[in-house]
Amino acid sequence: MSCSSLRLRDVRFTYPGEHHEALQGFSLAVEAGERVAVLGPNGSGKTTMVSHLNGLLELQSGSIEIGELEMSEANLREIRRRVGSVFQDADDQLFMPRVADDVAFGPANLGVSGEALDAVVRRSLALVDAAHLAERHPHHLSGGEKRRVALATILSMEPHVLVLDEPTSGLDPAGRRELIELLSTLPQTQIIVTHDLPLALQLCPRSIVVSNGVVVADGATRDVLSDTKLLHAHRLELPFGFDPTSV
């Protein structure tokens, strides 16, 4: 599978009817194959930023590049194929009567059919260790199973970049561990928005902290999580007793 770099330069965005900019000159460079955690309090601009990466929000100011492709109307279809988003609530992505149908939906809309489509479904489910779920109804699955299937629906499009919003939300400890192990095996560039700071340390060598629509810290995750003044200033808290320097 291919992976792409990301470049955001001085991106500014204001929601309709608002006067305050949600993004105030947001800039970020991510190399192909990196896993980067995006940390910050609610309302900091994290979701607004990642919603720009596949054109869910229209670029108002600044520039965005996904690999060699500049964000533009002409490139939007290919960018949306390259950048796959896994939502916080897997139910928002699963709407077909069978798991296999959900995984097939994206490539089928690109014209893949017949045995080629069946092969894509099998391969995508195998990547997330969910081949045994192909005939199940998505809404009868556990939270961890739903998360795996939602990821398979994105992998079926062969994305270069994965954007994951709170991927461990609602998972039990075993499901959380299994998801971390799975994500660590995937080659795509990964942007992981999370309040789960131990997840960031386990999975992402690099973390950024977003506040008031800009990046206020960018560095090795261990260093970012060891900066207690930084965490306190931006309403980020480690679990009681968790020492990032001991992991």
Q: Quick check: average pLDDT?
A: 93
Helix count equals 9
CATH fold annotation of the domain at 6-90 and 161-246: Rossmann fold
Tell me the strand percentage band.
15-25%
**Second rung of CATH, namely the architecture of the domain at 6-90 and 161-246:** 3-Layer(aba) Sandwich
Envelope shape: globular
If you compute it from the alpha carbons, what radius of gyration comes out, rounded to the nearest whole angstrom?
Answer: 18 Å
How far apart the termini lie comes to 30 Å
Order of helices and strands: EEEHEEHEHHHEHEHEEHH
Binned, the helix content reads: 25-40%
Q: CATH H level of the domain at 6-90 and 161-246: which superfamily? A: P-loop containing nucleotide triphosphate hydrolases
- Name of the CATH class of the domain at 6-90 and 161-246: Alpha Beta
Uncertain stretches: none
